[in-house]
Design a protein that fits this description.
- By secondary structure, the protein is mostly helical.
- It has a domain of about 325 residues.
- It is built from 22 helices and 2 strands.
- It has a two-stranded antiparallel sheet.
- A hairpin with a 2-residue loop joins strand 1 and strand 2.
- Helix 1 packs antiparallel against helix 3, helix 2 packs antiparallel against helix 7 and helix 6 runs parallel beside helix 21.
- The longest helix has 25 residues.
- The chain is globular.
- The protein starts with a helix and ends in a 7-residue tail after the last helix.
- About 50% of the residues are buried.
């Protein structure tokens, strides 16, 4: 493994984070919140120094990169960014422990939106901005941002993009990875800015518009009020609902529209299924909760908003859907697992994987009925290869295994099945609110420190789609085994061994 290149890349990531951290520093200073300002300032300076040293000492490194290095960079960069990003939350005294701070900021970077803050309104403007800003950074991916800023020296940065970008297949929009990253971020920035402007017209001030637009763009869901979006106007709720759906779509479709290939974009099979699931779910939920609200407008608005929020794994809420009928809650749990489209900022399994799994099941049934037939099936106009089908099936099996292990580990907590199960589902799929004790009107503050760490790992695994974290841990374990084996060989043999 090219360790020097990995360390050099991590140094660049730390430098980027140190620069980004000066934004909440200036906001805190502007509002006169000096505890938060000092915390951000010192952390940013220390991170800048550490990043500079890492880049400096590994300046002369082999620029070659392969899939193994790509997975390692993705895993370690997200862990290090979270560890550094949590420092201001703890140093400012606004979060009681570093584990709570780490949980909060992992939730931010992974666009989960699960919170351990008991009183959101008591947090400073700088901390509130940083929480939502981490959504925006993590939504598109910090490694994609790095590739847009720094030159592509290796010529193989697609390995990094594939390790970080969600979905079963990740392709370049244009031949050069760096240009692909720039295009993706340009689309991301334009959509975010459009939402900011529209929310300003709805009565939000600039700060509120920024934090909610960043939370929507990253499909994260951190709010600045205890009731999330509930106390804002119906206009703002509709704007956020529409943009949640837009950010849950594959960004490649937007590029096709910009490039004038509108017909190709409209033929997207994943988009048709994505919108179809949303419409059907919203209609069923609207009918099911029709007796909960007094007017038809409220029924439709709250149903559409919550379905869009959970489906795109954003996690904003206008009402406490924990109080909805069981059918509606069951639909929301299923939508938690499905998630948005591949190539979007949404979490979950992804609509494309669900399509491939269902088509795979259909092919197996046909093969059982007609053993001599060959049924490969197609997706997005292309034949489904055995490698793609095998990869999707393996990912789904691993997904179930990780969920089961995580659920069993935190089952010692004094909560019921519904709370623990939906907590793991919500964290693994980067949604935030679950049901029961972790519903939209509650939080994760009553979980033990150990469980918060387990759920934080689940958030990272969900955002990076399992493999980078597992392979990074496996590489560390393999290195330790090799080191211990080497030491054992070198140790002189004694008669009493």
């Amino acid at each position: 493994m090219n360790r020097k290149m990995i360390i050099n890349t991590l140094g660049r990531i730390i430098l980027i984070e140190s620069v980004l951290m000066f934004i909440p520093f200036m906001i805190s200073a502007g509002y006169g919140e000096w505890n938060a300002a000092v915390s951000f300032g010192i952390t940013a300076l220390a991170a800048a120094l550490a990043g500079f040293l890492l880049v400096r000492i590994t300046a002369n490194h082999d620029k070659g990169i392969h899939a193994r290095e790509g997975f390692a960079i993705a895993a370690f960069s997200w862990v290090i960014m979270s560890m550094i990003g949590a420092v201001p939350l703890f140093a400012s005294g606004e979060f009681p422990t570093y584990i709570d701070s780490l949980f909060e900021i992992v939730s931010g970077f992974t666009t989960t939106g699960a919170s351990v803050a008991r009183d959101i309104g008591a947090l400073s403007h700088g901390i509130l901005f940083w929480r939502s800003f981490t959504h925006w950074i993590g939504g598109m991916g910090v490694l994609v941002l790095m590739m847009a800023i720094f030159p592509d020296d290796s010529g193989r940065s697609i390995y990094i993009m594939r390790a970080e970008m969600p979905g079963p297949v990740v392709d370049k929009i244009v031949p050069k990875v760096r240009n692909t990253a720039k295009i993706l971020y340009l689309i991301y920035i334009v959509l975010t800015a459009a939402e900011v402007v529209m929310l300003l017209f709805g009565g939000m001030d600039l700060f509120e518009s920024l934090v909610h637009s960043m939370g929507t763009a990253g499909t994260g869901g951190f709010g600045i009020r205890g009731d999330s979006i509930g106390s804002y106007s119906p206009y703002c709720q509709w704007v956020i609902a529409v943009f949640m759906l837009l950010f849950g779509m594959n960004f490649n479709l937007y590029y096709l529209v910009i490039a004038g290939k509108i017909r190709n974009a409209l033929r997207s099979e994943e988009m048709h299924v994505y919108l179809g699931i949303f419409v059907v779910s919203a209609v069923i939920v609207s009918v099911n909760v029709s007796r909960v609200y007094s007017t038809f407008g409220d029924v439709v608005r709250h149903s559409v908003f919550q379905v869009a929020s959970i489906y795109t794994t954003t996690g904003f809420s206008t009402v406490d859907f924990n109080q909805w009928p069981e059918l509606s809650k069951s639909i929301l749990v299923v939508l938690m697992c499905i998630g948005g489209c591949a190539g979007s900022t949404a979490g979950g399994l992804k609509v494309s994987r669900v399509i491939l799994i269902i088509k795979g099941i259909g092919s197996e049934i046909k093969h059982l009925l007609h053993p001599r037939s060959i049924t490969r099936g197609t997706f997005e106009g292309r034949a489904i290869s055995k490698e793609l089908r095998s990869g999707v099936n393996s990912y789904f099996a691993l997904y179930i295994l990780v969920f089961a292990v995580s659920f069993v580990i935190i089952s010692f907590e004094p909560f019921g099945f519904e709370t623990n199960a939906t907590a793991v589902i919500a964290c693994m799929n980067n949604i935030g609110p679950g049901l029961a004790a972790v519903g939209p009107a509650a939080g994760y503050y009553d979980y033990s420190g150990f469980s918060k760490i387990i759920l934080s790992v689940g958030m990272l695994m969900g955002r990076l789609e399992l493999y980078p974290i597992i392979l990074a841990v496996a590489s560390i374990g393999r290195r330790n085994v090799r080191s211990s084996g080497t030491d054992r060989k070198k140790r002189p043999v004694r008669m009493d061994d």
